[in-house]
Amino acid sequence: MGGIMRSSVCEGQYFCLITHKIEQRFEAFTLINLLRDKLIGFASDSLARLSLIVTLHCKVNLLMRTSHSAIASSVKPTDEVKSMQQDSIIEAKQVRSQQTQEKLLNALNNCLKEDFFEHISIAQITEQAGVSVGTFYRRFKNKEALLPYLYQDFGTQQRAWVLSLTTVKQESLAQQVQYIIDNCCEFLSSNAGVLRTLHLNSRLYPEILPTSQLSERSQEYREISAMLIQHSTEINHPQPSMACDMATFMMINGLIEKILYQDLTPAIASPLVMAEHCKQLGAMIVGYLTAKPE
């Protein structure tokens, strides 16, 4: 690993090294975190850093997918991979440990309001939390180990938001659609740092998403869809339930892309300011639901 630490190595050499290491041992999760931090130094600005990080992630994901079968047949998974394959949430039992965990989560949430997760160090988190780095490592192996707890915490907030959202019925389908979009935009925008972190890392580390949490998200989407089906007399689609599910998907996905990645593709396809984007998104959804079949 000593060669990997040399700061003079270029991105191409780093990729060759990580390719070789992954072929030798199943250590992708550890290596990608190490290389990501080292590669940040090669980029001159935040956009270039983000592009570099995404490129590295894509390369490693592609490599892992194409060589997974060969690796799995010749190499036993490390303890780290085994632990990630198991339940990611280990609840703190002692009051003091619970308080420390809460402080660290609150600190991470605050840091995410100012910076990307990949740029936040453990020292920043512990300083914000008012605990020592040693205390952090007694509870967590690395900052990525906080992700399942961050997801769980966000899930609790989202559940409360959905419950509040679904208590209001508007007079018309158009008003209902716009009500959902506007409230969804406000909720997602106020949690953009956390949401972006979970959105990206849940694709890199599916293990942070417990099955129970995924089931809850699915239920919440169905509840939002049910808000639309209340106006079934205005819906002309031959399959109203399916159409409302699709409308929910389009609303949430259209907002997530615009809020989290407004300067990247595909969000740049909509150059509108957020308020107008929400208005046009609502009009598109209503048009889809109310269009009469030919």
Automatic annotation (TrEMBL):
<dbReference type="GO" id="GO:0003677">
    <property type="term" value="F:DNA binding"/>
</dbReference>
<feature type="DNA-binding region" description="H-T-H motif">
    <location>
        <begin position="121"/>
        <end position="140"/>
    </location>
</feature>
<protein>
    <submittedName>
        <fullName>TetR/AcrR family transcriptional regulator</fullName>
    </submittedName>
</protein>
<dbReference type="Pfam" id="PF00440">
    <property type="entry name" value="TetR_N"/>
</dbReference>
<dbReference type="InterPro" id="IPR009057">
    <property type="entry name" value="Homeodomain-like_sf"/>
</dbReference>
<feature type="domain" description="HTH tetR-type">
    <location>
        <begin position="98"/>
        <end position="158"/>
    </location>
</feature>
<dbReference type="InterPro" id="IPR001647">
    <property type="entry name" value="HTH_TetR"/>
</dbReference>
<keyword id="KW-0238">DNA-binding</keyword>
<dbReference type="InterPro" id="IPR050624">
    <property type="entry name" value="HTH-type_Tx_Regulator"/>
</dbReference>
